[in-house]
Every structure is written in C-alpha cells, then in structure tokens.
Q: What sequence folds into this?
C-alpha cells in the first residue's frame, strides 16, 4: 500500500509515523515515511508481488527458501522491464 500525502512536513500530523509502525508489526516488507518536494506524480501504477519471507516460511531447505526470493526478484525485474510498454498502454487507455 502506498499513501501519498501532499502536506508540508510541518503540516503533517505527528501520529502519521504510527501507520508505518503498524505496517511493520503486521508483516509489511517495507514501511516508512518519505518527504519530497513536489515530485510531479501524474499516475500511480500498482503491481503486487508475493512477500518472499512469507512464501518461504514452509521451505525445508535454504535452497528452497532462496527460490522464493529469486522468483519475486525475477517478477519485479520483468515488471520494470515492461514498464515503458505498460505506461504507453496506460496513456492510450486514458
């Protein structure tokens, strides 16, 4: 899940960091806050990937567990490689 907040840091509620802690406590692979200047987002495209630690939980060997991490890595690589095509398709649809 990604939440994009369009507030200046000094205007951001102090308890927003609680969301990141809850995400980590409930098993998120990555959570936190990031402050940037206007990044000019025009579109957000979501791609869901399996969580490797959760997928590898029942593995009976290190090699089997590593296979889950490699599979997700390869899926992410494939998504990134196809991103220009996905963006063109998105532009044509909208």
A:
């Amino acid at each position: 899940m990604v939440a994009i907040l369009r507030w200046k840091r000094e205007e951001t509620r102090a308890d927003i960091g609680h969301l990141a802690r809850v995400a980590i406590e409930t098993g998120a692979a990555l959570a936190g806050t990031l402050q940037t200047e206007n990044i000019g987002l025009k579109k957000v495209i979501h791609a869901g990937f399996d969580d490797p630690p959760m997928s590898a939980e029942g593995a009976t060997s290190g090699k089997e567990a590593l296979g889950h991490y490699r599979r997700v890595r390869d899926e992410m690589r494939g998504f990134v490689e196809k991103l220009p095509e996905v963006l063109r398709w998105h532009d044509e649809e909208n």
Notes: The chain has two domains: 1-41, 42-94. Helices lie at 17-25, 52-55, 62-93. DSSP finds three helices and no strands in the chain. The longest helix spans residues 62-93.
